[in-house]
Amino acid sequence: MAFSSTIAAVLTVALLVAATGVAEAQTDCVSKLVPCADYLNSTNPSATCCNAIKEVVTTQLDCLCRLYNNPALLGGINITQALLLPKYCNLPGDVSACNGM
């Protein structure tokens, strides 16, 4: 499954959702992304974060896309930082990953 900068934004949304407890029942992938929470306050994600992202994108892309496709969850996110996540985790990009989901 291809990765994308769109997915990076989705991952950041998931982290915020996990931190606030919003919509956890609808987004079962959120808890797996907790290792990436520190990335929101640093310049580079940890290896643990990158491994978690790779796993969730590979096995639960539909869950991440549900977050992305709900614009109400996008408030307060540093999109610029989120879009750098694939670069720091050495993930390839495909900006259409969540289209039609």
**Straight-line N-to-C gap:** 14 Å
Task: Report Rg.
Answer: 12 Å
Strand percentage lies at under 5%
Number of domains: 1
Could you give the order of the helices and strands? HHHH
The major β-sheet equals: none
Q: Mean pLDDT across all residues, rounded?
A: 69
Q: Specify the overall morphology.
A: globular
Number of helices: 4
Structural class: mainly alpha
What level of helicity do the residues show?
Answer: 40-55%
Low-confidence stretches: none
Overall strand count? 0
List the helices and strands and how they pair.
Elements: H1 5-20, H2 47-59, H3 61-68, H4 79-88
Characterise this structure:
With 101 residues, the protein is mainly alpha-helical. The protein has one domain. The protein has four helices and no strands. It is globular and about 30 Å long. The model has no long low-confidence stretch (mean pLDDT 69).
Summarize the structure in short.
This protein is 47% helix and 0% strand. It has 101 residues and is mainly α. It has one domain (5-88).
Spell out the key features of this protein.
mainly alpha; 0% strand; 101 residues
